[in-house]
């Protein structure tokens, strides 16, 4: 394959590479950069391409490997390595103070929400929360297992609505 034929084949194939680059990077500018890096590598390594093989697959492989290499390089770049002699201060818990205010408020809200449930929903829900299986709850409450599942489902749904402020 001559250089002219190779350039023509790559320019024809490069249009299908852009969506793949976008799927990898999830950003248009990064996708364009990845496409450009891929094409530069393809032109520089033209001698490694074997005539008669799938050019598109070769380009996709170059793009995928370039993306992985760039991603690994980015991870290494963002990794913080402390080279000071005082490494014991990094993980020291002596100077840290734990504040349980948020979890205390959340726990109070959860308990209040559970207490406001109708007794027919609260009892099976709390039993299930305590580790009882559906069939055990059904036997203890003398109701069908389907009723137990339904009541637990309704209790979860009501709690989800009441505690929506904690949804992420």
Automatic annotation (TrEMBL):
Any GO BP annotation: DNA-templated transcription initiation
Keywords: Sigma factor, Transcription, Transcription regulation
SUPFAM superfamilies with a match to the protein in the record: Sigma2 domain of RNA polymerase sigma factors, Sigma3 and sigma4 domains of RNA polymerase sigma factors
Residue ranges constituting the RNA polymerase sigma factor 70 region 4 type domain according to the UniProt record: 108-159
Every RNA polymerase sigma-70 region domain range: 16-73
Keyword Transcription in annotation: yes
GO molecular-function terms, A-Z: DNA binding; sigma factor activity
CDD domains: Sigma70_r4
Alphabetized InterPro entries for the sequence: RNA_pol_sigma-70-like, RNA_pol_sigma-70_dom, RNA_pol_sigma70_r2, RNA_pol_sigma70_r4_t2, RNA_pol_sigma_r2, RNA_pol_sigma_r3/r4-like, WH-like_DNA-bd_sf
NCBIfam families (UniProt xref): sigma70-ECF (TIGR02937)
The family this protein is said to belong to: Belongs to the sigma-70 factor family. ECF subfamily.
UniProt-listed PANTHER family: RNA POLYMERASE ECF-TYPE SIGMA FACTO, RNA POLYMERASE SIGMA FACTOR RFAY-RELATED
Record's protein name: RNA polymerase sigma factor
Natural source organism: Emticicia agri
């Amino acid at each position: 394959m001559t250089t002219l034929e190779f350039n023509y084949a790559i320019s024809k194939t490069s249009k299908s590479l852009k969506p793949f680059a976008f799927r990898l990077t999830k950003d248009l500018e990064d996708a364009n950069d990845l496409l450009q890096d891929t094409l530069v590598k393809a032109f520089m390594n033209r001698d490694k391409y074997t005539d008669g093989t799938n050019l598109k697959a070769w380009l996709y492989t170059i793009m995928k490997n370039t993306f992985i290499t760039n991603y690994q390089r980015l991870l290494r770049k963002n990794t913080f390595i402390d080279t000071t002699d005082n490494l014991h201060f990094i993980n020291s818990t002596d100077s840290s103070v734990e504040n349980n205010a948020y979890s205390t408020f959340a726990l109070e809200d959860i308990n209040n929400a559970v207490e406001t449930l109708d007794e027919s929903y609260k009892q099976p829900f709390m039993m299930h929360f305590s580790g009882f299986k559906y069939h055990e709850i059904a036997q203890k409450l003398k109701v069908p297992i389907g009723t137990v599942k339904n009541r637990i489902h309704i209790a979860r749904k009501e709690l989800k609505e009441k505690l929506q402020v904690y949804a992420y």
